[in-house]
Amino acid sequence: MDGIYLGTGIALLLGLILIIAAGAALCRRFGRHGRLRELDEMEGLDFEYYCADLLAARGFIDVEVTKGSGDYGIDILAEKEGVTYAIQCKRYSAPVGVRAVQEAYAGRDFYDRMVGCILTNQYFTQPAVEAAARLKILLWDRDYLESMEEE
Question: I need a labelling partner for 26 at 20 to 30 A (CA). Which of 4, 33, 43, 100 fits?
């Protein structure tokens, strides 16, 4: 009789562990999506500072948010592992287009940086993806931003 109670207790314990694990996974998933929704509602400057903090937390150094006007489209200057970056932040409600790629290209050269990049809470249009490939501009989209948050 004791074996039956022991077996039932173990089964209940394993069931409880599975329920807790599933609940934790759901909390992480909804927490991430909630954070992305918060980003979607941020003002542009707040988004730039959020991105700068995120980059610094991911090992970038000398992270600097540029002044608002006359920045040639570049919002953040940073360095990682000896590579210098000129980063444009786009907090948009629609896909990011070619114009942003052109600005990042010009800004990279203006600031004499090795890499030009666009970091956004959205995705990129196909023409923007094609232009970025030709101009050698990195595109960090919503999925990349989410993966940076998870690190």
Answer: 43
